[in-house]
Amino acid sequence: MVAISHDTVRALEWVDDTLRLLDQRLLPGQEVYVDCNDASSVATAIADMVVRGAPAIGIAAAYGAAFAARDAWRNHAESWQKQMMQGLEELRCSRPTAVNLAWALQRMHKLAMTLPAAADPWPQMLAEAHAVHEEDVAANRRMGRSGAALIHSGSGVLTHCNTGSLATGGLGTALGVIRTAWADGRISRVFADETRPWLQGSRLTAWELAADGIPVDLLVDGAGAALMRSGAVDWVIVGADRIAANGDVANKIGTYSAALCARQHGVRFMVVAPTSTIDMQLADGEQIPIESRGAEEVLAAGGQRVAPVAEGVGAWNPVFDVTPAELVDVIVTEVGVVHGPDAESMARLFE
Ligand SMILES: CSC[C@H]1O[C@H](OP(=O)(O)O)[C@H](O)[C@@H]1O
Predict the structure, then answer these.
(1) Model confidence, pTM
(2) Which of 27, 130, 237, 337 satisfies CB 3.0 to 4.6 Å to 174 for a cystine?
(3) For residues 134-172, b (16+ Cβ closer than 10 Å) or e, as one string?
(4) E runs forming strands in the chain
């Protein structure tokens, strides 16, 4: 087993009571950190995609909620449990699709309401945020092992978007499986599509894999179908932002297309996500809120206008889509693996 080195990068770090976020808008060219010391700055960092990726967003929100409780105690000690809600609401509204955000805020709020009203909540709230962070690191390792065990030796894999150390607290979800399976000698070739318009694949996944010394071939998003038809890919392995109770999966735009192509060409489709990404309150994927972002993300690439787009041209920019459960072969979580996900098999994860 080759040692898996993913310590080369961390999306978030806690240093001297400050949440340090690696600004992913500037990668891979610049490694610049944004320091957050209150709930509002964390919410802005999430909304602006300084930090992104469902689990990483949840972890950042947990620290943001701890800041909200601390500042409510400092400024309104007599009613801090009520006053902190403004900060939590700002965090909740920062991005709509990744349920890890709401999950983390609900967990932090539940703790706050159990704490004594007349005592400083900071120590316990910060400890809970650290627990959220550390649990994600452990979950990444477990999912890496469970997912890798499903991949037969000599497999080619295709991944979409970025699901590595930049999207989580540790090894990654889908990229954690790829790292683990590569280290086990199970993968012969890794493909990553660029993932327009934000380029999480070409800017982030390629950077992470290069840092690990794992060779990767980039492709334009539209090349996925031809690649799968060529027979070079045995698995498409992706993350998730929200999984409904029946196994429908919301993930980066383009995931649904990849799932359709995979089914057409006999390629297996694996979704890797911690249970903090599963929303059992939603019966199916139809109710998952899909975030749309500004037209400039489509019309420009890396901040430069994409020539020759004429002036006055608009854009349609939903940044997630929903893959129906029937197109998903397996969902890998830290508590179990679901083959052929449906409402019944998903519910068994929580028994
Ligand atoms: C580890 S799951 C990361 C998940 O989040 C990404 O979206 P975004 O970069 O907009 O935060 C993408 O959907 C990934 O699959």
Answers:
(1) 0.96
(2) 237
(3) ebbeebbebbbbbbbebbeeebbbbbbbbbbbbbbbbbb
(4) 12-15, 18-22, 33-36, 155-159, 187-193, 217-219, 235-238, 242-244, 249-252, 268-272, 278-279, 300-301, 304-305, 320-323, 330-332, 337-339
Q: Which of 152, 183, 168 is nearest to 273 (CA)?
A: 168
How far away, in angstroms, is 15 Cα from ligand 1 center? 25
Ligand-binding annotation for 52, yes or no, is yes
Closest CA to 326 of 285, 288, 290, 278: 285
High-pLDDT (> 90) share of the chain, %: 93
The ipTM (two decimal places) reads: 0.94
**CA–CA dist 32, 24 (Å, integer):** 8
Superfamily, domain 12-139: translation initiation factor eif-2b, domain 1 (1.20.120.420)
CA 31 to centroid of ligand 1, rounded, Å: 20
Is there an atom of ligand 1 within 6 Å of 54 CB? Answer: yes
